[in-house]
Amino acid sequence: MQKLENLSVLILTYNRFEKFHRCLKTLNEQGIRKVYLSIDGPKNKTDLKIQEKIISFCRNNNFDMEIKINQFNNNNGCRLGPIKGISWFFSQNQFGIILEDDVIISKKCIETFSVLLEKYFYNEEFLSISSF
């Protein structure tokens, strides 16, 4: 099984600092160390202020995490924003976990994903593994 600290996780976010913070804190508590953050561009000044707070928090975080940030200047919307964020993530990673900022994922789920990613990575019959 791949070590959790080597598993990359993408968080797709927009303007929900509290939800993002809770998601990031949970990942930190579970041993995730490589986080990618994709932020869709703001629609207005209020969104921009919240996004600046998210970015500032990431740059000054007290977690033992490496956080890479992808921030779009223009708002791409609910369809293209995630697509562009996921494309950016996979331009730098062969595989990983993708979360929206309001998702709290258990350590058991992360461990299961890690095992399944390793087991099925080279099997072309599998395109993704998901959880509900």
Brief summary of the model shown:
The chain contains 4 helices and 4 strands, in the order E-H-E-H-E-H-E-H. The protein has helices spanning 17-29, 45-59, 77-90, 107-120, and strands spanning 8-13, 34-39, 66-71, 97-100.
Account of the protein in words:
- This protein has a 4-stranded parallel beta sheet, sandwiched between helices.
- The model has no long low-confidence stretch (mean pLDDT 92).
- It has helices at 17-29, 45-59, 77-90, 107-120; strands at 8-13, 34-39, 66-71, 97-100.
- The protein has 132 residues and is an alpha/beta fold.
- The chain is 42% helix and 17% strand.
- The two termini are 22 Å apart.
From the structure above, extract its key features.
42% helix, 4 strands, alpha/beta, 132 residues, 4 helices, 4-stranded parallel β-sheet
Number of helices: 4
From the alpha-carbon coordinates, what is the Rg to the nearest angstrom? 15 Å
Q: What is the mean pLDDT?
A: 92
What is the number of E strands? 4
Helix-strand topology string: EHEHEHEH
Strand order of the largest sheet: 3-2-1-4
Query: How helix-rich are the residues, as a percent range?
Result: 40-55%
What percentage of the residues does DSSP assign to strands (E)? 15-25%
- N-to-C span: 22 Å
Given helix and strand content, the structural type is: alpha/beta
Shape category: globular
